[in-house]
Amino acid sequence: MSPYGSPGAARATRMWREIADQVFMRRYADFNVNVGLVVGDEAALVVDTRGSDRQGRELWAEIRWLTQVRLVAANTHHHYDHAFGNSAFLPAEIWGHEQCAARLRADSRTTQYALAAAMPEVAQEYTDTRITPPSKTFRDSVSIDLGGRRVDLTHFGRGHTDNDLVVIVPDVHVILAGDLIEQGGPPSFEDSYPMDWPGTLGRMLDVADGPVVPGHGEVVTRSFVEGQLADLSALAQLARRVRFDGGSANDALPLSPFPAAVARIALQRAFAQLAGEL
What is the sign, positive or negative, of the torsion defined by CA atoms of 108, 114, 118, 120? Predict the structure, then answer.
């Protein structure tokens, strides 16, 4: 890493945390989102690109204080706070699950208008953002050679979305999990598959033996992931049992391991899955 000795470089490097050898993460105030950077001898992988063209350009500039090697980017899923900064990294390769690219093409304009309505003071930042789906896609897994370091991108199954990508850095046992894991708040279920999520997380745990970077919040350990998996499993089992007994999502709500506002969405999605509607 070369900080170059300038005040701008010093500020940038202070905000990045090196959680393993040449593996960095940074929490941004915008949406409390985490971004990862995995540096090899010849290239560096940027994990998520933030939520707009401006935010992506800001990220790109900070990364250039950390390394000058060729950049490659990856989106852990299609949500705006993780993928709307993609255009700032062109012409770099941008990797994502095939459904990530499809969802960005199909849904992004609606999301841009919703963000503009929710944050009118910065509406133009979101409506003017150029949506850039991943240019490199895969279905199950792919490995990227960064020069002296291999990084694995794996889709373990549906969970937070239908296109969750997990970044595994085998040589230092680090996982960047995107929003399959949340720290500091409950998981988000708006686009989720609650009946699949426990199995997906269980498969991820099979290879988790070091730090895990969630999509939002602090870096966590395997035991934290096991606790979140237990809650997700309890929710899925609750939905299955209540539906089998003829009950509704509202009947299951008081027994959920998550707060009511979160659990209502989660249970509605779970019941829809059990009914074959998702």
Answer: positive
Which domain covers residue 60, as residue numbers? 7-155
Select from 29, 16, 15, 34 the least CA-distant residue to 167. 34
The verdict on residue 229 lying in a domain is no
Beta-carbon count within 10 A of 152 CB: 15
CATH number at 29 reads 3.60.15.10
Question: Are residues 178 and 164 in contact, defined by beta-carbon separation less than 8 angstroms?
Answer: yes
* pLDDT value at residue 202: 98
Percent helix / strand / coil, the chain, rounded to 5: 40, 20, 35
- Residue pointed to by tokens 């940038």: 12
The pLDDT of residue 14 is 78
- Percentage above 70 pLDDT, the chain: 95
Condensed to tens digits (0 to 9), the pLDDT of residues 217-231 reads 999 999 999 999 999
Across the chain, mean pLDDT equals: 95
- pLDDT of 3 reads 42
DSSP string, 231-258: HHHHHHHHHHHHHHTT--HHHHGGG-SS
- Between the two ends of the chain, the Cα-to-Cα distance in Å is 46
Is 55 within a domain? Answer: yes
Identify which of 232, 194, 233, 226 has the alpha carbon closest to the alpha carbon of residue 208: 226
Mean pLDDT (whole number) for 57-83: 97
